[in-house]
Each structure stands twice: as C-alpha cells, then as structure tokens.
Specification:
The chain is of the alpha/beta class. The protein is built from eight helices and nine strands. Helix 5 runs parallel beside helix 6. Bound molecules: zinc ion (2 copies) and fe (iii) ion (2 copies).
C-alpha cells in the first residue's frame, strides 16, 4: 500500500522532519509514499498555510535526499489549491518542476476558509445547501481545469459536522460524472477520521457511487505529523472493498499504477 497524501513542515502547520514520516511509513509496512505538501499560491492567497514559492527548490531537494536505491517508492507531489483567479498560476507552477502526483483541493469559498477551525461560525450565517452548492461548483471547475490527477477530500465542508443536506446529492452526482469524464482519481483521505465529523473523506456512499462510475481511488492519510502516516488504512481498505474496489492507484511521474487492495 501507498500513502499518497503527506504534508511536511514547510506548510507551516505540520510537524516532524521528512525522515520521520518516512520511518513511520516503513514501520507500517507501506510500499511507498508520495509527499503532497500545500503548494505555493499567489501572495494574496493564504500564505500562512503553505510553502512560499522560494521554498519549492528546497521541497524538491528534501524529498530527493530521502531516496535511497531500494524499492521503497518516494514520490513528490503537491496538494494544490483550486481558487478563482489562480488556475493559470498553478498550471505554470506544475510545469516548472517534475511531479509524480498533483491533488486539486478546494479549501475556500470566496475569502472564507470553510475548513478552518476559527471560522466555523460562518456556517450559522449561511444556508447549508448554498455552502455545498458553492463548494461543489468550485470542485466541478477544478475537475474540468485539466490541471490535476485527483480531487482532494471531496466532501470537506463536513469536517466539523456540517453534513450536506439530502438535496446536495445531485451536486455530488454531477461532480462525480465530471471527475470520471476528466479521467481523474479520488483522494480517499483518512483525515476525516481524525476530525470532529469522524468519517472518511469522501463518505462511504460517495465512494460506492464513485466505484459504480469506475472512478479510481488514491489512498492518503493527509498526515500533518509522522504518527498520522497511513492513519486507519485498514479501515479505509475495508470501506473500499465493500464499495466494490479491488485496486487503488499510486502515481509515478503523473501516471497511475494500480496495486491490489488487500486486508492486512
Ligand atoms: Zn494542511
Ligand atoms: Fe486539504
Ligand atoms: Fe492535505
Ligand atoms: Zn488535505
């Protein structure tokens, strides 16, 4: 198994040195990892939660230093924010260095970082359906942008318990169809089990539908600390098997490689 969603301290809100993440991954018996730290964005977009553009060469060299000539795979990627007005910036950024895997994630609705613990009161001022419509509208655009390999944590607004209303299901269906048509994968992200919602991203019923549509999955812990590497991967595999998945993908040089999903 591979953990394809790992952060590093360069993003300013993760801890632990890169070799510690690696050690944790080996201890858990993984076949490899992909680092996908928060990408640099234009200076006006949330500079406190990501590496700066000047740190990109450092990020690449820190990951390169980890590689030894054995068969443990160490990929490099980005979790790139998709935000209005920044798509071209990200597209050019990804062309500047070689990457193995790029996740497209939506963390903002307009100027509101809806998954930030300090700004959850905004949910009380907005209609829940409007929040999900705005969010999935952005995710839809991200999927159509032709920039990414996978869509990150597809139902992120639920993080603190603000679950989608029933009517949001049609939006999910539409987004899954565009994800499939764009040949994107889904980031199946166990961080949701560490958050107040206590549920996998995306929810099992979304994974089930994604499976019916033939959308591939990429497993990730979204670790922001070494002990979170491969967090509850056994449970995630169980959800995927029950949804009918028999394999997951790991990306190497922006190309997917399937590997079998097996109970530990
Ligand atoms: Zn983060
Ligand atoms: Fe994220
Ligand atoms: Fe992440
Ligand atoms: Zn994330």
């Amino acid at each position: 198994m591979y953990d394809s969603h790992l952060h590093t301290p360069l993003c300013k809100h993760a801890r632990g040195a890169l070799p510690e993440y690696l050690e944790a991954a080996r201890k858990r018996g993984l076949a490899g990892v992909v680092f996908t730290d928060h990408n640099p964005m234009p200076a006006w977009f949330d500079p406190g939660s990501r590496m700066s553009p000047e740190q990109l060469p450092l990020y690449h060299s820190l990951v390169a230093q980890l590689r030894q000539d054995d068969d443990f795979y160490i990929g490099i990627g980005l979790e790139a924010d998709f935000h209005p007005g920044a798509g071209e910036y990200v597209r050019r950024q990804i062309a500047d260095f070689p990457y193995d895997y790029v996740i497209g994630s939506v963390h903002y609705i307009g100027a509101w970082p809806f998954d930030h613990p300090d700004y959850q009161d905004e949910f009380e001022r907005r209609d829940r359906m409007e929040v999900y419509a705005d969010y999935y509208g952005q995710v839809y655009a991200a999927a159509e942008a032709g920039i990414f390999d996978a869509i990150g944590h597809l139902d992120l607004p639920k993080k603190f318990g603000h679950v989608p209303p029933e009517e949001a299901w049609d939006l999910v269906e539409g987004v899954l169809e565009v994800i499939r048509n764009a040949d994107l994968a889904l980031d199946v992200n166990t961080a949701g089990w560490r958050k107040p919602i206590g549920e996998l991203y995306p929810a099992p019923q979304i994974i089930k539908r994604a499976g019916e549509l033939g959308i591939p999955v990429v497993l990730g812990s979204d670790a922001h600390a070494p002990e979170e590497v491969a967090w509850r991967f056994g449970d995630a595999v169980e959800v995927l098997l029950q949804a009918g998945y028999r394999e997951a993908w790991v990306f190497k040089n922006r190309r997917p490689e399937p590997y079998p999903l097996e109970r530990a």
